[in-house]
Specification:
alpha+beta, 3-stranded mixed beta sheet, globular, binds FE2/S2 (inorganic) cluster
Amino acid sequence: MPKINFVSADGVTRTVDIPAGWTLMEGAIQNGVDGITAECGGGCACATCHVLVSTPWAEQLPPMTPAENDLLECTAVPRSPQSRLSCQIPVTGPLEGLTVHLPERQT
Ligand code: FES
């Protein structure tokens, strides 16, 4: 079960085990990670599961779909080149140790 690190906007790291096949968003919600709202439940419709993924991890993630790219224009904190939607990122074994940063707010 890959360990994923979520770093809050104020710099606190929370490490959680997320089963392969879940999304980052599902793992965050199931483990009570603050800072992910996920109002649409993973339907790529709310942009409240915004995370920031730095290189080199960003290069290991699946490419962004046009729908995710469009929705990233609607995040509460403006998107950056590191922005992704955590409901669109499936957890896989090679993502062991992935670190994602959480924006200051989701709504
Ligand atoms: S949970 Fe709504 S877009 Fe990700």
